[in-house]
Amino acid sequence: MIGAISRSVLRRGWRAALRRERRRATGGMDMDALVTAEDLRKRFPRKRVGQRRWWPWARRENGRGGNGTGASGAAGDEWIVAVDGVSFEVQRGEIFGLLGPNGAGKSTTIRMLSTLLEPSAGTAVICGHDVRWEPMQARARLGVVLAGDRSLYWKLSGRENLEFFATLYHVPAHEVPHRVNWALERMGLADRADELVERYSTGMKQRLSLARALLADPPVLLLDEPTLGLDPQSARNLRELILELKREGRAILLTTHYMEEADFLCDRVAIIDHGTIIAMDSPGALKRRLPHERVYRLELRETNGALRLTDLVPGAAVVEERRDEATGTLHLALTLAEPEQDLAALWTGLAHSGASVVNYSVQEPTLEDVFISLTGRALRD
Ligand SMILES: Nc1ncnc2c1ncn2[C@@H]1O[C@H](COP(=O)(O)OP(=O)(O)OP(=O)(O)O)[C@@H](O)[C@H]1O
Ligand SMILES: [Mg+2]
């Protein structure tokens, strides 16, 4: 008996010391950082097509245990490195976006932060609780919406789903009806709350998932592709809701491969590719990193045949040149080395050439341009 007591006291002491150590290890942790991911890594064993069983000793025979680093997915590799040393912090009242193409490692990061997947290496801390050592405490502070989530019960109504999950999330029984009504109201589902979820549209299911994530009123929200598959109006409404949640002081981590969404919603964005963060900053600062800040688009009707724009403006670089045979117009996209002088030269040159300008616009660069400049390929390639 005494032994058992002293063991449990020892255990508690050991856990507290470990917690202190871990907090120190994460840089003393800024109290406002509700999410801290430090050098998170995740590898998956690759199962070859046609291979009926993955033999653990095959790894040893090949002399590879792997060190968890390196590029992912080369044919014949035994491991896929899905997330490779990702570190970031999300502050209270901040929307932080993970922006990247398919397979970049966004969902894997979310799954590690939400304690659904154990990282192969690294740490993640939610409101001071390490996801590996204190998963229950971390989970109690999280609301999660996973991409393509089918964990709603389609044969139950929206309200019944929320009541069920509120109980799972340890919401006190007497508070459940109030909390469920609040979440339904919040997500604009109150009038359809008693219909079966199978009759909900995709947008409504997505809003119900977010209502479920809000049930325990968590300070941290992890949203994996929250607007995927929504029509533009529903996506806009959901984005407004996310902004409202941010204004309440929650820390929101969302993933997306819509750069306009990342641009509109996020205070900071981490561009992630092949499991690593290749750039992290505010959307504005990321775009300012591009050598040319603006793209000038012209639609011209040529009256004298061959128009040589680079002759007219030596500082112009042609980004796109396309002739539209149907309308007989020339579409040009340019960057200008010295916008003020070059623009004057451009208009003078155009006037002399006799070409008439059908359309003219100046565009800010997008996060897509940032991604192209960093990786040499488009986000959706
Ligand atoms: N359970 C798993 N087993 C094996 N490989 C996996 C597993 N989950 C993810 N992967 C691999 O890890 C990599 C990253 O996947 P992840 O789902 O995190 O990407 P993502 O950025 O969310 O992409 P998407 O935009 O398509 O959702 C991919 O190469 C994927 O095939
Ligand atoms: Mg994903």
Q: Superfamily at the CATH H level of the largest domain?
A: P-loop containing nucleotide triphosphate hydrolases
What gross morphology would you assign? elongated
Coarse structural class: alpha/beta
Side by side, the strands of the main sheet go 6-7-8-3-9-10
Gap between N and C termini, in Å? Answer: 65 Å
Mean pLDDT: 82
Radius of gyration: 26 Å
Contiguous helical run count? 13
According to CATH, what is the topology of the largest domain? Rossmann fold
Label this structure with key terms.
381 residues, alpha/beta, Rossmann fold, 6-stranded mixed beta sheet, 13 helices, disordered N terminus, binds adenosine-5'-triphosphate, binds magnesium ion
Structure explained in plain terms:
This protein is an alpha/beta fold. The protein has two domains: 22-44 and 77-281, P-loop containing nucleotide triphosphate hydrolases (Rossmann fold, 3-Layer(aba) Sandwich), CATH 3.40.50; 295-364, 2-Layer Sandwich (Alpha-Beta Plaits). It is built from 13 helices and 14 strands. It has helices spanning 2-25, 56-61, 106-113, 135-140, 158-168, 176-186, 202-214, 232-247, 259-265, 283-288, 309-312, 339-353, 367-375, and strands at residues 33-45, 79-91, 95-99, 121-126, 129-130, 142-145, 220-224, 251-256, 268-273, 276-281, 295-301, 316-324, 329-336, 356-363. The strands form three sheets. A six-stranded mixed beta sheet has the order 6-7-8-3-9-10, sandwiched between helices. Strand 7 (220-224), helix 8 (232-247) and strand 8 (251-256) form a beta-alpha-beta unit. Helix 5 packs across helix 6 (176-186) and helix 6 packs across helix 7 (202-214). The longest helix has 24 residues, at 2-25. It is elongated, with a radius of gyration of 26 Å. The chain starts with a helix and ends in a 6-residue tail after the last helix. The structure holds adenosine-5'-triphosphate and magnesium ion (MG). The site of adenosine-5'-triphosphate (ATP) has 13 residues, from strand 2 and helix 3. The site of adenosine-5'-triphosphate has 13 residues, from strand 2 and helix 3.
